[in-house]
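Run: sequence + 6-O-phosphono-alpha-D-glucopyranose -> complex structure.
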Amino acid sequence: MTHHQKGRLVVVSNRVGPLTDEGKAGGLAVGLADALKRRGGLWFGWSGETSEEGTFSEEKTEVFGGTAMTTIDMTEEELEGFYHGYANRSLWPLLHYRLDLVQFDRQSDRVYRSVNQRFAARLAPLVTDDDLVWVHDYHFFYLGSDLRRCGYKGRLGFFLHIPFASPEIFMALPGAHDLVHSMLAYDLIGFQTRQDRRNFVNFCIHELGGHKLPGDRIEVGGRIVQASVFPIGIDAEGFARFAVSPEAGEHEEMLRDLARGRLQIVGVDRLDYSKGLVERLLGFERLLEDFPDNRGGVNFLQIAPLSRSELDAYIDLRAELEGLAGRLNGRFATLDWTPIQIMTTGFTRRALAGIYRAARVCMVTPLRDGMNLVAKEFVAAQDPTDPGVLILSRFAGARAELMDALIVNPYATDEVARALQRALTMPLAERQERHQAMREKVFHGTAAHWCESFLTALESAEPEARLPADA
Ligand code: G6P
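>> structure
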């Protein structure tokens, strides 16, 4: 980089760390750890712990190389209202187009806003106006405007890792106008896909009376904000190296031994209703029904680490999945073959890379997903001379780049079954060709590239830009 970097990078997100590559972290942490390791700075967020009011005034700071991680606790009430409540019972289902699962509750709305305020107030003394403050994800929509109210005048960016729903859906949120209005405090707002950006811009235009300006900018009530698309990526080279590590090799071999010549299908997702796990199992069942040659010849392994497991929607989903897998196994199993294995155990990223490499097919079939980094990691982990096939939902953000996957509508069971059959029988030359095309995308649009593009745009944004009063 030739331009000089004035301030530090200050990242704010609900979950902080790990900065080590062994983490079982979700997509957000994987992308950010990479970025901070390269730039240095401060990562600020929740400690993952609760404590009584009054005792939580203490911050915890750990330093790794050039990066400090500073976290604060929440109270039990905050955890319930902010994290379980508004973030994961209201916003998460809403932004994933699941109005059937959305619960609105004014108490959790209040707690969500007050947690945003409290985090902003705790962050304010730790930043200077020369820093670049970059806020992440749906936990902290209001934090930017709260930080401004605390007096911060430097550059302020926001990136939404999950989808931004179309205004038709988004308008169901009580206080939708307030929320989007508060987002205008950010100088730059990043989205995963053009569709997410379009949904946001349309909301600003049709609901808040805004206008498009040249570039990626929009103007709402005199305030000018840039809204752009930055598809998140992975550390592709790092992950490809994981795939040939001894730990990966052990897992690859274990899985191949277990499969005894059968073709392996894998899925790796947090156990979440947005991931289309039930539909995926039904697609696999349809494969066994409609293409019976596969009976006894394929193994389906679903790795599904538990998350948010206190919430009813997640408890119900787990029971449904386990019931379905049990039913399918009961129906098709033979003495020497169990078609489906579901595990809630998490694996290290090296182990996962080995598992991906042992798989002939990877199913990434969410009903809605911001990006989905499993799709990219699967591609990066493959042996280019004998690569596996990616089946990818048309509703995953990754679809915009990974068009050479087998694209499916995850709701269409027959289509999923046909894609599975096609993947399992795909000739080597076609597998190589598709993999090569996807590999180029994954190795080009890396986490580092994502981070640098966002920060370059943020550095050139004008803080708190407004239209001249006489315009
Ligand atoms: C998604 C979200 C992240 C979140 C992760 C894990 O990737 O975009 O913000 O951290 O899921 O969910 P959890 O609720 O366990 O943090």
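>> summary
Residues 15, 26-28, 137, 161-162, 307-308 surround 6-O-phosphono-alpha-D-glucopyranose (CB under 6 Å). The first strand starts at residue 9 and ends at 15.
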